[in-house]
Amino acid sequence: MNARACRILQEGAAELRVEISDELVTLFSLFADELKKWNRKINLTAITSDEEIALKHFVDSLALCRLVSVDDELLDLGSGGGFPVLPLALVFPTMTAVSVDAVEKKIIFQRHAARLLGCRRFAAIHARGEDLPRLLERRFNRIVSRAFSDIPSFARMALPLLMPQGTIIAMKGRGGAEEADAARGALEEMGLTVIRVTEYRLPFSGDARTLVEIGFC
Fold first, then answer.
1. Which stretch of DSSP H or E encloses residue 97?
2. What value does the mean pLDDT of the chain take?
3. Which residues contact residue 59 at a Cβ distance below 8 angstroms, ignoring those fewer than 6 apart?
4. CA end-to-end span of the chain, whole Å?
5. What is the pLDDT of residues 108-163, one digit of tens each?
6. Residues 6+ apart with CB under 8 A from 102
7. How far is residue 95's CA from residue 89's CA, in Å, rounded to a whole number?
8. How far apart are CA 142 and CA 74, in angstroms?
9. Which H/E stretch holds residue 122?
């Protein structure tokens, strides 16, 4: 990443109360370089400039740091090029992080990136979300995604994999609070409820973002 992108990463993360050391900047830069290199061969992301990668992939992913911790067992459903799971794995190296995507090439890239970045407690699985209950024996206390178009579909897929005291976290943009309200009835039918809705602005761009936390009733 260029110097401006590195500044966006550090200052943007700081606005979200996440400290990014110089060592982490080096790792994120390596991640960005690999993302761009692989993106020339396979479709990982439409975001290709250093500055946009730093902001819209890295800083955006790190907004979840307020809701997860080093001891969590985290599952990212529909992780694409590795977001938000790989930035979280870098910041929380002792977190158990599992990534799932239905596109095998994206999972191959994630495995390569994780090896390169030294993410030792990370695993990437090529599967469809609905197949996971028979593929995974473990359950997770944090299940996240920024890929799903609607909250009930995400919750329905995450529910069989959620620990009793765990939470499902949907990353949304503008209108996320209204979407959460509209989903309450469908969630209640699954035994779930909206615990908290956090609205904030993405640093630098000012774009509206929403984190919707869902748990058992």
1. strand 96-101
2. 96
3. 8, 9, 12, 13, 16, 202, 203, 204
4. 44
5. 999 999 999 999 999 999 998 889 998 887 799 999 999 888 999 999 999 999 99
6. 78, 126, 127, 128, 129
7. 7
8. 5
9. strand 122-126
